[in-house]
Amino acid sequence: MGRTMCGRAGEPAVRKGPWTLEEDLVLVGYISQHGEGSWDNLARAAGLNRNGKSCRLRWLNYLRPGVRRGSITPAEDAVIRELHATLGNKWSKIAAHLPGRTDNEIKNYWRTRIQKRPAAPANTQQQPCRAPAAAPTTATAASEGASSSSSASASHGSSAAEDYYYWCMKPNNPDQQACYSHKTVAAAAAVGLGGWSASAALTRQDSSSTSTTAGDGCKLTGYSYPYYFELGSVADGVMMVDADNFWNVVDNFWGTLPFPDATF
DNA sequence: AACAACTCCAACCGCTATTCG
DNA sequence: CCGAATAGCGGTTGGAGTTGT
Length: 264
Prior knowledge:
The chain has 13 helices and four strands. It has helices at 21-34, 39-45, 52-63, 74-87, 91-95, 103-114, 135-145, 150-153, 160-168, 180-190, 198-207, 224-241, 246-256; strands at residues 5-6, 14-15, 211-213, 219-221.
């Protein structure tokens, strides 16, 4: 990419462009210990040669616990269309109704999938990747079982947005397995990288394929899935090294993070 | 196989809003 | 109240990957 470095003579060049695994680990590790906020200071204190804005974006959109990867499901598509009709380009507000999705992701989805093309009939749309096609239908059971949020336990409304939100709040929702690889990354950072090296992980990342079929049969393309898949594989190595308490570390660390998403 | 066109999306930019001293 | 710093938002860019010829 052409956005790798910049800076004037005499100043340390601030790194731009795609984040490396090592940078991700540094950022996650630092935030896990010190929390987020004051992003410019955070970037300096963590030793990241990035500006604070870049760190904040990386954390919020990709590293933050609860961020979901993978295709937008038909249920989510319906929510986006519905909310955009009333809210317009208020991506952050729309994202608030889609747990785990970011404004950036929704914005990209809208521009590339919806804005460019007319709405396809529901029965011709791609099958969902992770969320069940009947997500709104299962939302009733979800709302009945939800206990971690007062809003989730309230009776839900009739809109696709509300149905989908309540479905997402369902305890032990398998859809939340999407968080797995992020958990492993965070946990790896929390345990001080266990017995593996980030550079080794980078080597493996570079050799990963660009198109991968997830365990549920959903084909995910591009950079994200292979990248995090590899992170998960590396973290499996941590399990072998520190198998006794690895998942305890994961769960404990996850529980300490101040994000409501972490309660899914 | 090689190339072009297209698609996707991570990351950047500029602006506004909010917070704080 | 004011100005600087910080946070957040929406628009845009450009490179990687995919698909078509």
